[in-house]
Amino acid sequence: MATDSDSPVYVLIGATGGIGSAVAHRLADDGAQLVLGARTESEVQSLADDTGGDAVPLDATSFEDVQHIVQHATDTYDGLDGIVNFVGSILLKPAHLTSVDEYREQVRLNLDTAFNTVKAAGRPMMRSGGSIVLMTSAVSRTGLKNHEAIAAAKGGVTGLMRAAAATYANRGVRVNAVAPGLVGGDGEFKSKMSESILSSKAGRKQSEKMHPLGRVGTPEDVAPAVTWLLDPETDWVTGQVIGVDGGLGTVRTG
Predict the structure, then answer these.
(1) What contacts 24+ positions apart, CB below 8 Å, involve 186-193?
(2) CA 202 to CA 1: how far, in whole Å?
(3) Residue 120 confidence (pLDDT)
(4) DSSP per residue, the chain
(5) pLDDT band, residue 2 (cuts 50/70/90)
(6) Predicted pLDDT of residue 193
(7) pTM score of the predicted model
(8) What is the pLDDT of residues 93-121, one digit of tens each?
(9) Is 60 exceeded by the pLDDT of residue 67?
């Protein structure tokens, strides 16, 4: 494949979700070279066709798979400017009703995939710097009932991000996180994770009420924060959680 050495190279893991797809299209429109990873081969290939990127099917809970996509990027494009992990999940249950297997699945999908991302990207990015972006959540910033397992997993992502930011700062590697509120979307990009919550009128109404700005977010709301953190112009930003959550994580109106 022909490469353009003047274009940044980004790896997007979990790229076929709503936010990942929105980010992929924004980066492609800006001329970036993309390596896109997701579990479903047909979906990631379709996104690659739309954005001109490389499709690499993977299981983000497998470190070997994440290492492979990073190696593919560095072998193909001779470098890596940024990587984002979009893989995640939602579980709404109180702790006493959450099974051990359900809890471990939240950790596996959210924290393990984030750790795999940092571990795989850390070494190659130490050579020339770059940006690592992880996805945490508004629920790790404020206490919300029935969110114990997912809040614990996403809180772990925040701790991982800040430790990694300290570890790699002297090598020019920035590590940050974006913390969305509940994201749906009815347009070109749609978050599948929230479908079970937003599919009922009652669920949607309650979700909108929880966000001080009065609505559920969209992938297009969150994507600019991710692309901003990837941009080399933000090279003095590290160790930060950027909330894009309609005020859910920090604001109370009543």
Answers:
(1) 186/218, 187/218, 187/220, 188/22, 189/18, 189/19, 189/21, 189/22, 189/25, 189/218, 189/219, 189/220, 190/18, 190/219, 191/17, 191/18, 191/19, 191/219, 192/17, 192/18, 193/17, 193/88, 193/89, 193/90
(2) 49
(3) 98
(4) ----TTS-EEEEETTTSHHHHHHHHHHHHTT-EEEEEES-HHHHHHHHHHHT-EEEE--TT-HHHHHHHHHHHHHHHS---EEEE-------B-GGGS-HHHHHHHIIIIIIHHHHHHHHHHHHHTTT-EEEEEE--GGGTS--TTBHHHHHHHHHHHHHHHHHHHHHGGGTEEEEEEEE--B--SSS---STTHHHHSSHHHHHHHHHHSTTSS-B-HHHHHHHHHHHHSGGGTT--S-EEEESTTTTT----
(5) very low
(6) 61
(7) 0.93
(8) 999 999 999 999 999 999 999 999 999 99
(9) yes
Q: Report the distance separating Cα 74 and Cα 92, nearest Å.
A: 39
Measured distance CA(210)–CA(5) in Å, rounded: 45
**Model confidence pLDDT, tens digit, residues 121-157:** 999 999 999 999 999 998 888 888 889 999 999 999 9
